[in-house]
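Hi, here's the filled form for the chain we discussed.

Project: internal
Contact: R.S.
Residues: 110
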Amino acid sequence: MARADRLARMDERRGELENTYRGALIAALEHTASGKPGLFGHKEHSGPKRPAPPAVIALREIGAEIAELRAALGLDPFELHREFESARGPVSAQAPGEPKQARAWLERLA
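And the returned structure, exactly as it came back:
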């Protein structure tokens, strides 16, 4: 019974963290959509190395905790975090800018 209770608490925590992650991502996307680049790291490859923005650091921390819980529960990786990390980084000159990319993400998440 104790194991079942522990797993239930872990799963509840996982759900809470996934909701927190989604809310934090939406807030960061709204900030970026308003014209503040940096969330997707399109310019990280040019110029001096800068640390990731605080929103990215927070999302990675939450994502890491979610990953640990999902692994312990035998669940697949958290797809939203995987997709976000895949969308980050340098892009071609013809790719949409970060504000436009953020608006597309917001539409998709709505």
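Let me know if anything looks off before we file it.
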